[in-house]
Amino acid sequence: MAERWSCVRCGTPVARDGDGRWSCDLDGSVAAIDAYAEPTVHGLLQQASQVAAPTWLPWPMLDQLSLSGTGAALEAAGRPLATVAALSGPDVVGGAADLVIVCEEPMVGMGARYAGTAGLDIGSEIAHRLPAVHVSVAGRTTPMWWIAGPADRDVFVGEASGRWLWVVAWPATAGALVHDGLPLRDLRDLLGQVDLIPLTGLCPRL
Questions:
Q1: Through-space distance between the first and last CA atoms of the chain, rounded to whole angstroms
Q2: Bond preceding residue 171 cis, omega within 30 of 0
Q3: Do residues 86 and 37 lie in contact, with contact meaning Cβ atoms separated by under 8 Å?
Q4: Which positions ≥6 away from 56 have C-beta within 8 Å?
Q5: What is the pLDDT of residues 100-127, one digit of tens each?
Q6: Which of 152, 155, 67 is nearest to 144 (CA)?
Q7: How does pLDDT run across 50-95, given as a tens digit for each residue?
Q8: pLDDT value for 84
Q9: Three-class DSSP labels, the chain
Q10: Which residue from 75, 97, 193, 206 has the fewest beta carbons nearer than 10 Å?
Q11: Backbone phi, then psi, for 66, in 5-degree steps?
C-alpha cells in the first residue's frame, strides 16, 4: 500500500506529488522503499526475478552469518534505483554483528543513510585516496575505500556494475568481515540456490 512507502534517504513516509513522483517533506523528490518484511525464500525469489538491478551478498555466505532482509528503492515509475541486503550473525570479537550492503545509482542516498554520512557525492570523498581492501564482485576485483562515519560502525564504498557499492558493518569491529577477496554475488545469479541461503529474523538496521 502507498502509505507503507518511505524516503530512501531518511525513512520519512512519502506521497506522490502532482507529477506522480515520490515526494518527502524533508528531502523533496526521492526514490522510495516499501516496508521490509521477514526474509523468506519466496521473498528472495521475488526480489531476484522482479528487481532489474544487482542485490549483492557474500557467496558463499560468510561463516555463521544469515541473510536478514532485502529491499529495493524505486522511482515512482517503478525503476529500481537502489537495492539493499542485510546480514546478521556473531561479531568477530563477540556479541552480535550486522552488515548492510547497498547497490545504488549516483545521488540516491540509501548508502549515505546507513553509513551515517552527510552529502550524496561520495566520489569526491574517495578521490585521490588508496583503497582499503579489494573485494570480488561477480568475479571481478573491485577496490573499496574506507570512509569515516559514526563511531558505532565501519563503512566501505566502491563501484561495481556502474553503481555505488556500500558495505556498512555494526559494530565497527565487524568491519573485519570486509576483507580482501570477499566474494560478492548478485542474488539474480543464485536463483537455483536460493533455498541454500541461510535466513534469520529481520535486521533491526533496516
A1: 19
A2: yes
A3: no
A4: 83, 85, 101, 103, 137, 160, 165, 184, 185, 186, 187
A5: 999 999 999 999 999 999 878 888 889 8
A6: 155
A7: 999 999 999 999 999 999 999 999 998 999 999 999 999 999 899 9
A8: 97
A9: CHHHCEECCCCCECEECCCCCEEECCCEECCEECCCCCCCHHHHHHHHHHCCCCCEEECCCCCCCEEEEEEEEECCCCCEEEEEEEEEEECCCCCEEEEEEEEECCCCCHHHHHHCCCCCCHHHHHCCCCCCEEEEECCEEEEEEEECCCCCCEEEEEEECCEEEEEEEECHHHHHHCCCCCEEEEHHHHHHHHHHCCECCCCCCC
A10: 193
A11: -130, 150
All 3 cell numbers of residue 94?
563477540
**Pairing status of strand 133-137 against strand 183-186:** parallel
Classify 109 in phi/psi space as left (phi over 0), alpha (psi -120 to 50) or beta: left
The cell 556473531 sits on which residue?
A: 90
Confidence at residue 137, expressed as pLDDT on a 0 to 100 scale: 98
Residues 6+ apart with CB under 8 A from 165: 56, 101, 102, 103, 137, 142, 144, 157, 158, 159, 184
**Inter-residue contact 153 to 172 (CB < 8 Å):** yes
Where residue 156 falls among pLDDT bands split at 50, 70, 90? very high
The CA distance from 91 to 58, in Å, is 16
Single-letter amino acid, residue 15: A
C-alpha cell at 65: 552469518
Query: In this structure, what C-alpha cell is assigned to residue 7?
Result: 524516503
Amino acid at 96: A
